[in-house]
Write a structure and sequence with these properties.
Blueprint lengths: L2 E4 L6 H9 L5 E3 H11 L1 H11 L4 H10 L1 H22 L3 E3 L3 H4 L7 E6 L2 H12 L3 H9 L4 H7 L2 E4 L6 H13 L2
Parallel strand pairs: 1-3, 1-4, 2-3, 4-5
Amino acid sequence: MKIGITGGIGSGKSYVCQLLSAHGIQVYDCDQAAKRIIRTSPTVRQQLLQLIGSLEKADIARFLLQSDTNARQIDAIVHPAVFRDFQESGMSWMESAILYESGAHHLVDRVIVVTAPEDVRIQRIMQRDGISRQQALLWLQRQWPQSELVRRAHYHLVNDGVADLHAQIETLLKTLNNK
């Protein structure tokens, strides 16, 4: 069974994946894979260079945030390469902030969504990336609302710093093992 983990930026998907790792579950990280592919794939590098004129992370992020059209153009280059890489990886678990938006949900059988309150997410993003509240909000606004992710997902983990995430993961793994 293939499992997808999603949730908006700052929800704590990576932390959940660390906890899953303690259970021996290796999770394919789509963000890290995209960065690696952008660094190493001559085809992807050439296509991005033609589109943006630069391969610098800040330039790519700025271009992506300028418009939905720009984001779709980058996605059309990077997503297919990441999907191929996941399928070739042999892994059963995938983490992607934009699992539905990218179409990656078609590669998995079950979806887990990780959520956290917006204020918590904003603080996490600001601290992690060293960016302003306004910049963090721009990233949040580019993604689907958490309510839509929860509606579509098969399982929901709450990572608000209060709910017992370890217990939620234990319950989730028992449920998945019974399928």
